[in-house]
Design a protein that fits this description.
By secondary structure, the protein is mainly α. The chain has helices at about 5-15, 25-45, 45-65.
Length: about 70
């Protein structure tokens, strides 16, 4: 009775995979659009919604930058 040893596969899954560097253009464009959307809401009279948009946008972008 022969069984294949999967320890190498398990060990490979536990190793950190190399992260491909990105130019960051997508994050910059997303940040700009979210900030402009928040300010647009504030200007058009939706101040509470605009402020909530800005706060949540900053939180999302911070977590995105941190890699979560």
């Amino acid at each position: 009775m022969s069984r294949r040893d999967d320890f190498g596969l398990w060990e490979l899954e536990l190793r950190e995979q190399p992260v491909e560097p990105s130019g960051g253009r997508g994050m910059a464009i997303t940040a700009l659009l979210l900030i402009l959307g928040g300010f647009g809401l504030i200007i058009t009279g939706g101040t509470p919604l605009g402020l909530a948009d800005l706060v949540i946008s900053v939180l999302i972008l911070f977590l995105w930058q941190a890699g979560m």
